[in-house]
Amino acid sequence: MKPNKHGIVLKLLIVSGFATINTSALATSIINNSSQPVTISNGLVTEGATSTIQPGNSFDIPSTWGDSQHLYARILANNTPICVTQYGVSKLPTTENQQVTTELECTSYNGPTPTPTPTPSPTPVPTPSPSGVRIYGNGTWIYDAQFLDGPDGAAYTKAGLWSPNLNSYNIGARTSSKITQFFTYGGDLEMYCRGSGEADLSEACTSKNMLVNYYPPSFYNTSLTLAKLGDSGYSSSAQYKLSADKVNSGTNAKVQIIPIVDGRLDNPASSDYLSAMNRMTQSEAQLLADNVARIYCADNSVSGVQFDLEPFDFSKSGQQYFYTQIAKDFAGQNKDSKGNDKFNCKNEDHPDGRSFSVFTFPSKVNQNLVQSLNSYNNGYVIYSLYDLPDNAPVGPVNSPANYYNLVLQEVNKAINSGAYFQLGIPAAASVHEYESLNGKVTGYKQLDYVKAAIKAINDSGVRANPRFLGVAVWGWSKYMSYPPHSTNVYSPSHPPSDVLQYLQQNM
């Protein structure tokens, strides 16, 4: 570690061996040998509880503040961050002891450790009431689009494309490894108002210019016909539900259909159909959420909706208003003048309403979002454990060993976030975890990444966390290309047989 001008001592326990790591044994003591108090909090979260370490005292960092090689802390002296790395916090190795001398320089240290200051209690998050819609289960992303002219050609959808594969997987899987949540592609949102869709910034958003593309035709551009597009998101939901129910006696898996609603809020003006979501007024955002609820709750096969609207940013008022209203609508709490659920989200088949989830990284989650997700006990987060680290540029491939440590760090962030969550793993190629790119082989197998992810999940202890809702498997598609609809093709595009066999017994 680079010497620092402030006075603390860092004692770190030595741990060795990738295969024999026990994260519960990790401990890092920070000793304050300066003449002034220092404060410390969890470096993996932005709103963690803080402890003050007086001169001559020490503090033991919990193992959940990092991974097998490093622990992360936010340390301040006189309200100024100290021992800061490129990560913006202190990154403390588990291989050496450190101290800050009376000259306020960090050096190696082998001396005794004072009695530690008690670990700070985390900021309390109200425990949500039990909910029948936010249940444990493993899920998977499913895309029925075919590209008859190659990955950069037009997409044509065939509903139920991957049904035989998923049913076969469930027949051979142990009970805890079955995939019981199908994230079928359920269409997108399009806005032709507030500057999106070539509309003027002053054009207000209405039901006519905010579109939810689940049922056909529902397209602003009437030239997009079923003959060109193939089956709709509704068709995919119906086909997967029908197919899974038919083989239920053989799979013993009661499958939930949870359509994905996707969209980009950061496209260039020439292809922008959703950036207005960040600029919506409260009434406009509530109207869009009501339209979504009206569309998806009309399909009784739908148990919930997953929102993959990127970049996810709950600090944007439009997104806050939208997701807060979704929680209310999906819980069946948006009533008409007679006290009835306006959108039939809550009915005999769905007595607790429908669930909703957002796809993002733990770093994007704050307590305002957690409160919104818990407001009706029906919201959760799907955390990405692929394309790591968060915000990394497209290009470098992760080694499985490095990927293990990145996953462990993300899982610990997830545990500390306070939200209910699933964890998404790369059973198929992602842009940082893949076997080949345009035919050029990396030397790594997708199975290596899956084994590393499952090991990190198991080592973290997250399976005992009451807010952990299961594993989400990426993913099933004809091509995995990035940028989308390009000839830049990553492989494999769906889980290979060895990955499926491993997950059947280990997920």
TrEMBL record:
Cite the entry's keywords alphabetically: Signal
Please state the span of the N-terminal signal peptide per the UniProt entry: 1-27
Where is the sequence biased in composition, kind Pro residues?
113-129
Q: Which domain of life is it from?
A: Bacteria
Show the segment(s) annotated as Disordered: 106-129
- Please identify the protein, giving its name as recorded: GH18 domain-containing protein
Taxonomic source organism: Aquella oligotrophica
